[in-house]
Design brief:
With about 200 residues, the protein is of the alpha/beta class. It is built from four helices and 13 strands.
Length: about 200
Amino acid sequence: MKLLLLSDQEEPYLWDFYKPGMLADYDLILAAGDLKAVYLEFLVTMARCPLLYVRGNHDQLYDTQPPEGCDQVDDQLVTINGLRILGLGGCMRYSGSAWQFTEEEMARRIRKLRRKLKKAGGVDIVLTHAPPLGCGDGEDLCHRGFACFRELIEEYQPRYFIHGHQHLNYKTGSQRVRMLGSTTVINACGRYELHF
């Protein structure tokens, strides 16, 4: 399978400079938050494959204008083309706006999904907005990752953990791909292609 991973920054290559057929090879698009609804709508129309997304901390407009043709997977475990995908949008609470959570609130969201995870026999891909604590996150509260994401990785050992939120230009020498145990952690900022 060929997956297109996206988050945080609309890519001119995929939008302004789009050429017919350039998205035809993708089997699935995963969006990790903070992208304009019209951008996601354009991509799902041109790619003609499923587009799953979680919400970022700047996606309040989705309340009234969600991206049409796309599927929100926050707090869900879905199976697409045989892949078990868990969605957990949002970031660390820093101002009280929507889609911000304390560590305990995020851990509670994960606990509510345990029965589904057990029934499914685990998870292949975890799609989030924020990164795991200490794995590509920032030092400020807004960009700090969640410790409960590390616990989720340790317990279920998904093949991939895909996040956004931490722009690659925030730190010199930022890494897009990291490992946490046997799980590949990918920062989807902008765009990234994954062959599964």
